[in-house]
Amino acid sequence: MTVPYVVVDLETTGFSAERDSIVEIGAVRIEQGKIVDTWATFVAQDKPLPAFCKELTGISDEDLAGAPALEEAINRFLQFADGADLVAHNASFDLSFLNRASEQSGYLPYAGTYVDTWELSQILLPREPSYSLESLAKSRGIVHGRPHRALSDALATAELFLQLLEKARKLPLLVLQQIEQLTAASDWPMRHFFASLANEPLQLTQTEPPDDCAVIQQLMHRLVRIPERKLEEREPVAFDSEIAATILSENGPLAAKYPGYEERPSQLQMVRAVADALAEGRHLIVEAGTGTGKSLAYLVPAILHAAATGERVVVATHTINLQEQLKHRDLPLLQEIMPVPFTASVLKGRNNYACLRKVATGINSQGLIGDWNERSFYVRMLTWLIETEAGDREELNLQGAQAEYWNRVASDSDSCIGKKCPWFRNCYYFRNRSAAEQADVVITNHSLIFADIKSEHRVLPPYDRLIIDEAHHLEDEATKHLGEDVNYFQVAGAFNRLVRDSRQGLLPQLRTTIGLHPQFAPMANLLDQMAGKLAELRHHLDETFSLLQQFALDLSEKSEAGRSTLRLRKEHLELPAWQAILSAYENLQTEAASLHNLMSKLELTASDFADDHQIAGLITDIGGQVQEIDRRMLTMARFFRETDPESTVLWLEAEDKAGRPFVSLYMAPVHVGPLLQEKLFDKKDSVVLASATIAVNQGFSYIMERLGLRRAEEEGRLRTLQVESPFDYKHQALLCIPTDVTPVKGVSEQVFVDSLCESITTLARISNGRMLVLFTSHRMLRDTYLKVKPKLAEHNIRVFAHGVDSSSRVRLVHQFKQEERAVLFGANSFWEGVDIPGDDLSCLVIVRLPFWPPNHPIAEARTEALERQGRNPFMEYSVPQAIVRFKQGFGRLIRSKKDVGAIVVYDRRLVDARYGRHFLQSLPNPWIYRGPEREVLKLVYNWLKRET
To answer: Which of 194, 237, 807, 926 could make a disulfide contact with 733, Cβ separation 3.0–4.6 Å?
Structure first.
């Protein structure tokens, strides 16, 4: 390497180069692949540092005393960086400040090449879960002593850059050449970096594919290996509930692996119940409290049943986190200890897998690629394909625009050319599907279960026994997936994938491919007609959805999130404005039918060139987008023609934004129980529903009613089981309800927030931070955050808030754990799936009981349905639903036998309302105190002090 590099990092007073200033500069010089020098300086300021800057960096105003002025600091930096290319992590940020400072100091802005290690990491480390400097340093074993100090950050970035440089040099020559071709004609800043690597003498030796990689039509990718399920080679296996329980007993193979292993009676109860259900062909509902070990309790009998009978068992989870836990933790453990060999496979929805043909098409169409983000995306695909064996989108941390580009390479049935595809034998989707067909246990998700149901069981391999974990989500998932929705951007996205402008889109791409040769003239004519038709379709699409948007905004109230929701009722459909919408929709549908006819003609014309893989592939891709448009039009047709309000609820959601119409159309079944009974429980021999929070009032009547399991119960095909958590909640968890706080109802939200802020500020000080606060309202979360943050800053307690500091739950939880004294505010998604064991969390606050908004269209429709039957919808629907959610929130605190903590609920309805006792009776027996707020604070203090 001949070119020297200077790695730079800046600490600043804010995020705007125009308004904010540089506080500290750190730089590291690299020559011949080694760090040869470092330099750093503070920069004098003309006003005191902002509080957040001091908090983040630890730099004080006193540190800046005697620091050089900006002009001198920039002059010294330019001398240090002379003759070098720049490197920075998130380089656009640092360069914007450097260029602004250079201009202010009388220098020209930097015009040389630079390397952004944030983007380079995405390319060379495509499967990293986070690309923050702190996370990368940790995962790469880089010492990063003082995060958010300029020289420490610059040194960490320099070490990271050297690792990335080494990895880049080991890329196969073909991949480097393709990166060079993709970026040669662009202004992508890092094109020179990859071009120089491709031309290094060392690369001439990297001409052979790495081990387990193949090259098909110049696309290098790792081969997928699928283990075969050889049933005929297996020894016969006996299976019953006691054999299953032995695996996890104190004398079993798990105990033999882990000295000091403690048998869990509740886990063995569940093992036996699941084993009996699978063996006897019965359904089972089981609530297994936190700490039971329920995933092993259902996996062990599932594996044994499959081994004994040859019948596969499907396991479905709601969250990706649990799916990943089963794949990476539980199944590898069971592979070690189970007395029988077994195969397991994870299968996701088809568009989670990359289509190699589409990737190759994109890479070979570099002249049609638009911007840096798109080029960077395809460069990332090139490096990922030589590493991945699954081709699974979940391996990639795609953010921003790159997440949208995934749709261009995702596998789907409409654009699949099957066995004609050169990559068919190594297609990620078909290989994963084949693995599922060979597996004893298939791990999937709730969405795919319902996709399988809707497709008459053509998505998943055949199965008769199903285990659904996180089953408290089943009704909502059924409502979502057995219903339909369509929005403006789904249709417009298909239009854009066909034609975005004269250069971008599948139609221009095919037009460029066929060129001007006379034999392609009929095809070119049809492509031109389709492009013209799409222009007409855009007009009608905009008109239809603009009218829908205005209709929703005019007739509904805006929610706190700025979104208007309108449930469609009979009176709405008689308004003149609705008739105008129908008229515009008819025009849209007519033009869409014309596009479909043109597509049919194009396919007929293109049949003469079926042997040309590139043309055939593009025709298939175009046809796939036209089918996507057809599907969306069919959904709209069903929406506009639906006439039975008692079985189906229709609603619009719109946002008042300029530009494109932000509006969505939804239709959902009012009752999913009968559908689940008919399509799931009557069709399968055994369905096990498992959850940590599925019982209400220590019983399962609510869930049986909602999911359509009454008939199975009457026929004796349903068993239920509630097993207790092994945790001693009476000694580990204190639940307090202050009885004299401001009530939730009857006062303004502002009055409630003011009272809440004062109390949780004191509570946070008592618990030394280490507190999670759960909200049901984002607006209340933000209002509380703004009031509480400065108060707690005075006591060196940081506050992190979802939707304010970051939209990433994972990032916020990580930051919270890193701080010694911190409070975390969360809403909605934080009520479950957040796992903060040990001393990191000792206090949980629940601001309000988590009732669904009563005016949500689905809640309204179900309430009305119960009222028509003469029943009490609040007690039979709203309260049980809130209890399940409340139990999820409660479960965030105690995550192990050693955890100790206090829960404070600021909703007095828990003690004032008659239904409050149902919430308390559904909890796993914590110590409960009801009393004045002052006594609550004392009790929490003593409780935490006693246990620590």
So the answer is: 926
